[in-house]
Amino acid sequence: MALSDPVSAWRKSSVSENTNCVEVCLRDDRTLVRDSKCPDDLLVIIGAPGWKYFLSAIQSNHGDFRLD
Q1: What is the mean pLDDT of the chain?
Q2: DSSP 3-state of 41
Q3: In terms of Cα–Cα distance, which of 62, 21, 67, 22 is closest to 46?
Q4: 27: Cα within 13 Å, side-chain hemisphere
Q5: C-beta separation of 64 from 38 below 8 A
């Protein structure tokens, strides 16, 4: 999987600032995460169960994540 995938495959939150955010790309059974300022650097790949847990924890403010 190349980092040079089309820009349209990557998305970021509509509430993020123009330069300081992460971008995600949904691919099959995994989610790719990268820093929008350095798109060709480190890429994090998260399996479907981990991504679902992460989103659930953020939305409910439970689990190992603290938003305050």
Answers
A1: 78
A2: coil
A3: 22
A4: 18
A5: no
C-beta separation of 23 from 34 below 8 A: yes
User: Is pLDDT of 1 > 50?
Assistant: no
pLDDT band (50, 70, 90) for residue 45: very high
Question: Which residues face 30 on adjacent strands?
Answer: 27, 47
Q: What is the pTM of this model?
A: 0.68
Residue 12: name the closest of 32, 28, 36, 44 by CA. Answer: 36
* Strand, helix or coil for residue 47: strand
DSSP class per residue in 10-57: -B--TTS-SSS-EEEEEETTEEEEEETT-TTS-EEEEEHHHHHHHHHH
- Choice between 57 and 24, residue whose per-residue pLDDT is larger: 24
Q: What percent of the chain has pLDDT over 70?
A: 71
Token couple for 50: 């981990």
